[in-house]
Amino acid sequence: MKVMQTRRLLLRPWCMEDLEDFYAYAKDPDVGPNAGWKPHASKKESREILKNFVGNGNVSAIVLKETGKVVGSVGLSENRLAHTGEGPCRELGYVLARSCWGHGMMTEAVRCVQKYAFEELKLNILTVGHFTFNARSRRVIEKCGFRYEKMLKGSYTDYRGVKMDEVCYCLTREEYESLEQKRFCAARLTLEQAKKICGWRYSGRYAAYNFPAWEELCARGWAMASAEKRKTEFHAILDENGTLCGFFRFFFQGGILTLGLGIRPDLCGLGFGRRIISLVLREFFFCYPGQDLELEVRSFNHRALACYWSAGFEETVRYEKNTPLGPGDIIRMKFSGGDEF
User: Fold this and answer.
1) Superfamily of chain region 4-181
2) Three-state SS at 15
3) What is the pLDDT at residue 80?
4) pLDDT tens-digit series, residues 134-165
């Protein structure tokens, strides 16, 4: 799998330098048996197993970004659950260190892998299963939208030779897309959408965010007027009906990846900000793993500031600036992480 990140986690290839972290959670008697494998008895045993992970493009290490420590694994393997003839299908598997249980981290990782599986690998079906006693795994599976499919009696023989029952779930591409449509989604900004944005009009102090007419915007050579930049930098924010609700842009400014964001005037102040910034950060984590992210916001825009603070941005500096939309007192903020919404 490609290198990916979430708010708190980095998903990357395994390397032999991960041995200490791998052994630390793999020896825990409460970890391995939940997935059917025995706790590791020695670092030597962990090393031999780790060799099978290194260079395996189907399995990724889960790294806690705050510490750099490997705390688990997630992978996509060949499907065992009898969906032949229904198109490309993989089975999801995962394990997480006990110290990270109960914090939503596995849900965070699985949602990231779902996006990769359906949007990049173009799978038709993603399956997953858990043993009947593993309530924690069941909660992750249900929160990620998988649908119960069947119970397989004695289908898995664990490390003790005991036949285990598996509870099986699946998620089709159509079901995944339906889940995504229930929240805001991102798409490349079209020419027609860019022209609509130029017609948005904010009132009061927020009029500072009004764009010029399309013809003037083009004459000034603004980024949104460039077909290439609309394709590579700009994203439309759409609701479940495909209606334009806002836009965002990732661009490099002085070597720093910077976020620009706008919400349709009639939607401002209605509580959509948290959902929209959550979408923006999902795209950031997926498209720019390992990058820092900063933004500028006018100091009077308390609604935006509250949303950015809640999402994990922190103020770095304040200054006055002449912007294309007029002079203003600016607050520069940098994303520092935070709890998932």
Assistant:
1) Gcn5-related N-acetyltransferase (GNAT) (3.40.630.30)
2) coil
3) 75
4) 989 998 998 888 998 888 899 889 899 999 99
